Amino acid sequence: PNMTCGIGFVGGVQMWTSSESPRHVYVSTSQIGPYALFWDISRVDIDSVQLTTVETNVMSTKWGMLRVIILTLIARILSFCCIKMKPPTVPIQWFPDGEMSFRGRLEVNLLNLGASFSARSKKGKWKTLHSCSFEDTNLQLMGSTGGSGTARMEFRSSRSGDQVDIHLCAFKSGGKTSDTTTYDRFDINTGQYLKRVAGGKAKSDITGFVAHPMDGRAQFVYYEWEKTLLEVIPGTDGDDNLDWRKTFVEDDLRYIRSYFQPSMTFKIVSRQQSDDAWVLYAESDIGHSMCKGSPSAYFLFTRTATTVRKVNGTSSEVKRNIELIFPSRPEMKSYKLARMDPVHVKARDGEDLLCYLSRNPPLPMIKGVHPEPPGPPPPLVMMIHGGPQARDSWGYNPLCQFLCSRGFRVLQVS
Q1: What pTM was computed for the model?
Q2: Which of 85, 167, 189, 274 would suit a FRET pair with 252, their CA atoms being 20 to 30 Å apart?
Q3: DSSP letter string over 71-120?
Q4: How many C-alpha atoms does 237 have within 13 Å on its Cβ side?
Q5: Which residues contact 96 (CB under 8 A, 6 or more apart)?
Q6: What does the pLDDT look like over 335-380, one tens digit per residue?
């Protein structure tokens, strides 16, 4: 009766399972009932239906909540007297390691809503590895509703010690603070910054991760500027168990990119546990021949490795293949859809704004140029997305297509 599982007001979706203990499920719980904003983490035994608290949130009890509020008020009063006091922080998201020990958390302080990432060493000591103010917080990373953020902490033990990779924002490296999110590695015991694993692109945050289907280690990252881009995370520098350079992923991604045309984007939807079969989702802004006239479709990527005997020994031969599973919108093939083009607009302060302009198919080219249709320009609809972490993306958009079919052009400002 006191369990709040799945989604609450503060923090992402908190529910985990482990292949090492398949009869246990880890979920968000609260001692003060379903109206809690901040959660504990509990383990549910599926067979006995027994609930065991494994991590306690200071704000999950009435007395704990009162204590945090009082300390926050004291810190506020002292700030008026120019006396600095570190305000208490509250976990809003938890991160387990491979043994389902919850050693990472994303925290906020209630004084100025600044965010921080903390990790617990194997000796049980918590250490704050990175903090940033509310003004510098990336809301795409933090999220505003359950599970909407892209925050990530991945623990790893190697010959170099106890380490963690964190997807964070506003991190200063080499004397420069990144304006986009980064994936950085830290030593948990010392708090020392070790290296940049991915991210730090000039134009795009990391918008998602693709993990190995068995151990959950991140292998790919998504970026999204004008269109979605998938990249392989570099090798792990001597980690004996997790050297992705020994796998096929870089060649797999190269093969997939060469298969789809430049006018399409793709994402990895799911992967078989043996990792030799992937389901892909490919998309265009209009109907595409590779999708049988649909703007998007699902494809199956397969990889088979066979041993070939030769005179001087044996070698491994890898064969890759992609085949269409089904188009996702087959009914759209009979329609002439409007194109969506990335365009850039300079704001008054000089900031470059990425926009998407949807308009009906142009007239046939004359001397290499598409002429404008006769008559006055069609009316323009400005379609504004919500927030605070939302953005527009390139691809098939039903509302844009509807408006264009009625004679409008549509501009989305991201």
Answers
A1: 0.85
A2: 167
A3: HHHHHHHHHHTT---PPPEEEEEEEE-TTS-EEEEEEEETTT--EEEEEE
A4: 12
A5: 16, 26, 102, 103, 104
A6: 889 999 999 999 999 888 999 999 987 656 666 666 677 778 889 9
**Alpha-helical segments (H) within 303-406:** 398-405
CA angle 201, 98, 38 (to 5 degrees): 75
Rounded CA-CA distance 328/326 in Å is: 6
Question: What residues does 411 pair with on adjacent strands?
Answer: 357, 382
Give the phi and the psi of residue 179 in degrees, each rounded to 5. -85, -10
Token pair in block for residue 303? 């990889």
**Residues near 257 by beta carbon (within 8 Å), at least 6 away in sequence:** none
Look at the chain and count its residues: 414
Angstrom CA distances, 280 to 230, 323, 324, stand at 12, 10, 9
Over residues 94-114, the pLDDT tens digits come to 899 988 999 999 988 888 888
Point out which residues pair with 388 in neighbouring strands: none
Tokens read off for 170: 């506003």
Q: Which residue has the tokens 């945090």?
A: 68
Beta-carbon contacts of residue 127 (< 8 Å; ≥ 6 apart): 118, 119, 120, 121, 188, 189, 191
- Rounded Cα gap, residues 184 and 173, in angstroms: 10
Distance from chain centroid for Cα 101 = 22
Six-digit token string for 75:
């810190």
Distance of CA 338 to the CA centre of its chain: 29
Question: What's the token pair of residue 293?
Answer: 């006239």
